[in-house]
Amino acid sequence: MNSLRAVLAAATLAHGLLAVAGEKAEAKEMAIATIVDPTGAHIGQAVFEQAPAGVIVQVRVAGLPPGPKGIHLHSVGACSPDFTAAKGHINPEGNRHGLRNAMPDNGDLPNLHVAADGAAAAEFFHQRIRVSAPALGGAAPLLDEDGSAIVIHAAPDDHRTQPIGGAGGRIGCGVIRSGGA
Known about the structure:
By secondary structure, the chain is mainly β. It has one domain: Immunoglobulin-like (Sandwich). It is built from 1 helix and 11 strands, in the order αβββββββββββ. The chain has a 7-stranded antiparallel sheet with strand order 5-10-11-1-2-3-7. A two-stranded antiparallel sheet has the order 4-6.
């Protein structure tokens, strides 16, 4: 539990530092997701920062089984107890799943590697999404009419197998909400 508190404190601090970085801090388009486990316990946070050419995604979690985990962006901003309300991946153009495909779906991310103590911290850069509209060049907005969710799976994603890379059941979910501009 202390590890979870430390991870959440670090995520909150990182989010605060992002908001005030630089002498002339610019307002940044941000979104945040509080990640919960199937019991509803808070296990971490994801922060999404719009950059000129894509979105910087920072994820910090604790209390998960160790090892690589598939992590994806899902098309509906809802987390029911089994997380199926988040529906499938963000994929408005019907692309194939997997980063090993020439045109992967918009919800695909690299695996999240969870340490032996159950904690993980990762930063990804994603060019096929935007925090909100207007979506440019095929990038899908996270904060659209029905929202989006970030979902952590029980197993690694092989980045090839349809429809989710063999990543298994859903063990973490967070509804992505506006984090201010």
